[in-house]
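Project standup — Tuesday

K.O.: blocked on the structure for the chain from last sprint. Re-posting the sequence here as requested.
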Amino acid sequence: MRKLFWNASKTGDKHEFKKCIQDIGSINSQAMAYLAATEPCHWSRHAFDKSIKCDHVTNNMIEDFNSMLKDFRAMTYLGLMEYIKKMVSRVPCCHALAGIRHHFGVNGNQCSLEDYIDPLLSKAVYLQTYDYMIHPIPDLCLWDDHVGAPIQPPPLKRKPGRPKLLRKRESTEKPKAARSGSVVCGKCRLPKHNSRTCKLKTVM
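H.V.: unblocked you, prediction finished:
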């Protein structure tokens, strides 16, 4: 049923969405009622607002974002922002541009390529974005006093399994050195066993 849910969430076809919901209902009617209580525009790709420029469906956006950055996370801030800018620019990729040129002809009207670039990337929209004053956040000492109950952190929940004793090391850190040497018996002073498993009989 989990696979059916993700199929209903990620599909861009309305009829396939209905088919997945019906299949979920045939397995568990309560699950179907639970999904029906939430509008599909909040969780299914086929019903997303067309003005939204991101059709990503995920349960952990941060992990996917870091996965997309990969090695670029180690770049400087300016370099990282430039890379992100290229990734979310909404400019057609080289394959799409090749298809567009094939449709209009290699020597066709080059201005027709602009019709396939989102209007939000135009200079007019860019100037309109920064037309208003962006007020900076005042210093912390100028903030109003908080009135009401103090904000408490969420309660700690113990995760299943044995807790980890070793901290997670950074990618630039060396791994912890392995234990060197061998076990020496306390009775016979020979290596590779201890006094508990020593076969030497105690002389009375």
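K.O.: great, moving the ticket to review. The first helix runs from residue 2 to 10. Residues 90-129 form one domain.
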